[in-house]
Specification:
The N terminus is likely disordered. Helix 2 links the parallel strand 2 and strand 3. By secondary structure, the chain is an alpha/beta fold. It is built from 12 helices and 10 strands. Strands 1, 2, 3, 4, 5, 6, 7, 8, 9 and 10 form a 10-stranded mixed beta sheet that branches. It starts with 6 loop residues before the first helix and ends with a helix.
Length: 350
């Protein structure tokens, strides 16, 4: 998604993305077909996937091997796919929608397009990682962090709160990717926790102080290269790079705000079944699978470095335990992406 200069540009972009994605039938990714079946799951389903493609492929392959259900995946961003589902309405061919962040799930929920999640699936996910409405559920999570240049900053010089980044002493010293769904989810949490006036004030200070980059990885690379002192991103960009060559993160380290600060926000990745599903049994079975033990172990043992949150499966052992993050309590169903877009546009960030 590009930075937008007006609401009309944003609407046009969403419509173009939706039409383009619909036209790209050749880019769908069918999973391999397994031989066994489980319960009433059978046939085929289509997943609109805004999660990491490699992660969802792992889930699909394991699910198909266990159930024999064929899964076709359509890949896109949170905003692209949520806009497309809303546009398609009851005619959507999607059976399941998966996201990286909660606001896109809330958008589809608010349009009345989700079926209730099966109670057995809800029971696998702790209350803090799913919306109060039960219209969709958390499937994974990611923590907000400030990655900083170890040569320029010591921990005693770091902001005590994310809100401090709007103060004059941080002018020109930090980076973010405001056009991305990741950062907008963080602002959504700030809006829910502190209200509109405080959020608007913080965004004004951000506009004065920060440097914009396109993408969290690029923002982290800027810190690593000494272009800025710090960047507000999600944790897994750092751990993913460290697990590879570490060349883009060797000079940085993550800082966790904790103390229920807005900067300690843990964003819930969502999964939901569409009312329009032509194979609701298999769609519900898929959602139950990825929140079940086998699905969560893909997170625990894989290279996405997102947090496992369900079925008592612990996180990857390289991560800070999720209980130690001291995240603020935010109902994912209340994250307001439309209001965030309005406020960020008003502040000149989009």
């Amino acid at each position: 998604m590009k930075i937008r200069n007006s609401a009309l540009a944003g609407i046009a972009l969403a419509a173009t993305a939706a039409l383009g994605l619909t036209a790209c039938g050749g880019s769908t990714t069918p999973a391999a077909t397994g031989s066994s079946s489980a319960g009433s799951a059978a046939g085929e389903i289509t997943v609109y996937n805004a999660q990491h493609e490699s992660l969802t492929k792992e889930w699909i392959e394991a699910f198909t091997a266990e159930t024999g259900v064929k899964v076709t995946m359509r890949q896109g961003s949170d905003t692209e796919l949520s806009n497309q589902i809303v546009q398609e309405g009851a005619a959507s061919p999607a059976d399941v929608f998966l996201t990286e962040n909660s606001p896109a799930m809330a958008q589809v929920e608010n349009a009345g397009l989700f079926a209730d999640v099966d109670k057995a699936t809800i029971g696998q996910v702790p209350e803090e990682f799913r919306p109060s409405t039960g219209k969709w559920t958390g499937i994974a999570a990611r923590s907000t962090v400030l990655v900083y240049d170890k040569a320029k900053l010591t921990e005693d010089k770091l902001p005590k709160s994310m809100l401090d980044l709007a103060n004059p002493e941080w002018k020109g010293k930090w980076a973010a990717s405001p056009s991305g769904a990741d950062f907008q989810a963080i602002v959504s949490a700030l809006l829910e926790l502190k209200g509109e006036a405080a959020t608007e004030e913080w965004l004004k200070g951000m506009k004065e102080n920060f440097k914009a980059y396109k993408g969290n990885s690029t923002a982290m690379k800027a810190v690593n290269a000494g272009e800025v002192d710090a960047a507000l991103i999600y944790h897994y960009y750092y751990y993913g790079d460290q697990a590879k060559t570490g060349e883009n993160s060797k000079n940085v380290t993550p800082y966790y705000f904790k103390n229920q600060d807005p900067g300690a926000f843990v964003s819930v990745s969502g999964g939901g079944v569409l009312k329009s599903s032509k194979n609701a049994a298999a769609a519900q079975s898929f959602l139950k699978f990825i929140t079940g033990k086998k699905g969560q172990e893909v997170l625990q043992k894989g290279t996405s470095f997102e947090y496992a949150i369900a079925s008592d499966v612990p996180a990857n052992d390289k991560l800070v335990p999720i209980a130690e993050l001291q995240a603020p309590t935010v109902d994912p169903a209340k994250l307001n992406s439309a209001k965030v877009t309005e406020l960020m546009t008003k502040a000149g960030l989009l």
